[in-house]
């Protein structure tokens, strides 16, 4: 059983399109995250949800909209895709925040042409 | 603000060589420190952690000691294997925060040749 699963794993699309990435965790964690990893492997947090409530929103363009229908799911919708959105997007989860240990999905590689 | 600085790669070693990847941090509180590893095509996974000064984290032959006096958490391994080839990330979490936010370094690519 995959603990944190993301779909799709690969996404190739044209500029201007809208796309979504889905994430599900079966660890019973109450906090979920989206991270963006650029071509140089730099990881930057985008959003964090705790029990369906947005708690971190790191100066991400409004074109990015996370949605958490329940605490096991956190989806990422991106409108009007731009070339600079090409990256690997990682979903992660953790239990509370005290230990700081995150469990990551395998990533979704988005390529915008 | 809180931040992590780790040595730039790539690092290329022969099998059985010694490894050190330097990591220093800046934090206002008392952070917990982590090393995460990312194998090719996979997500990050926790390699080891230390939650207070002088703690030593260890796993799979890797070690790192939380040094408050030098604000460092260097990753070491005495004898690397080809299977250790991956990207290694140093990270910190402010224990004063309940959000589980991690600040990552920029990652160090390690390649081990047979």
Task: Describe the 3D structure.
The complex is a heterodimer of chains A (113) and B (114). Chain A has 113 residues and is an all-beta fold. Chain A is built from no helices and 11 strands. Chain A starts with a strand and ends with a strand. The model of chain A has no long low-confidence stretch (mean pLDDT 91). Chain B starts with a strand and ends with a strand. In chain B, strands 2, 5, 6, 10, 11 and 12 form a 6-stranded mixed β-sheet that branches. In chain B, strands 3-9-8-7 form a 4-stranded antiparallel β-sheet, with no helix packed on it. A two-stranded antiparallel sheet of chain B has the order 1-4. In chain B, strand 10 and strand 11 (103-104) form a beta hairpin. By secondary structure, chain B is an all-beta fold. Chain B is built from no helices and 12 strands. The interface between A and B is medium-sized, with 27 and 28 residues.
Write out key terms for the chains shown.
heterodimer, A: about 110 residues, mainly beta, seven-stranded mixed beta sheet, four-stranded antiparallel beta sheet, about 0% helix, B: about 110 residues, six-stranded mixed beta sheet, about 50% strand
Distance between the termini of chain A: 34 Å
| Beta-strand proportion of chain B | over 45%
Discrete helix count of chain B? 0
Strand content of chain A: over 45%
Biggest beta-sheet profile of chain A: 7 strands, mixed
Query: Ranges of chain B with pLDDT <50 over ≥5 residues?
Result: none
Helix and strand succession of chain A? EEEEEEEEEEE
Q: Please provide the count of β strands of chain A.
A: 11
Task: Note the topology.
The complex is a heterodimer of chains A (113) and B (114).
Chain A: E1 4-7, E2 10-13, E3 19-25, E4 31-37, E5 43-50, E6 53-57, E7 64-70, E8 73-78, E9 87-94, E10 103-104, E11 108-112
Parallel strand pairs in A: 2-11
Antiparallel strand pairs in A: 1-3, 3-8, 4-5, 4-9, 5-6, 7-8, 9-10, 9-11
Chain B: E1 3-6, E2 11-14, E3 19-21, E4 23-26, E5 31-38, E6 44-50, E7 56-59, E8 62-65, E9 75-77, E10 86-94, E11 103-104, E12 108-113
Parallel strand pairs in B: 2-12
Antiparallel strand pairs in B: 1-4, 3-9, 5-6, 5-10, 7-8, 8-9, 10-11, 10-12
